[in-house]
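Sample intake sheet
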Amino acid sequence: MKMQQLLSLVRRAVQDYNMIEDNDRIAIGISGGKDSLTLLSALKAMQRFYPKGYELEAITVSLGFENMDFSPIQKFCDSIGVNYTIVETDIGQIIFDERKEKNPCALCSKMRKGALNTMAEKLGCNKVALGHNKDDVIETFLMALLYEGRIHCFSPCTYLSRKKIMSIRPLIYVPERDVKGFANKAKLPIVSNACKADGNTKREEIKKIVRRLNTEYDHFEDRTFNAIKRSYLEGWNTYENGLSQRGKK
């Protein structure tokens, strides 16, 4: 995927869900993976022409795993003129060594987001951009249905009242394969995930199910995604979301 194609999809998502307003200060959560670095690249490039002016901060929440070197990301952020902050934590030790969680992902996600939002608040940011792509939307919807027995998916925008911060997800229109293509073409400085649970999660099981359904049903992913957009899941109705966003000003 070329930058122009990426920006087209990101801009459409941002406009559809009113994700960015004038004078926003946006913290981008940088895990070191392809999604967050692609998001950083897109929002930085979009700064040049988007009609609403905004500032960017890049934040990595380090889980405390050994052999994770974020210096390539520091160099990348320096090269594009974005301030980069690393938040050091013991989340990995707490989850795997102390609590010995059998299903660590949910708790880890909650703790990481907490640390990310706290640092975003300290840096004066009013929004946090997360790197969930189109595949993540479909997989999260199916995980809730199959594992929890409920109709649910994260929203394109989520207002965190305690922090007075809005979480936004500008990559929701970008398929994972296109994120991979862009990351490879742009030679983004991806940092390998040292998490013990990486590649062995419920989400990986859902990915396999989606791949199988794609071979059995034409346009399965697009039809599922469009069904989510047309549904009454919180935040996915573009008209209602626009009204709620304006109410947060």
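Comment: The domain at 3-247 is CATH 3.40.50.620 (Rossmann fold). Residues 242-249 have pLDDT under 50 and may be disordered.
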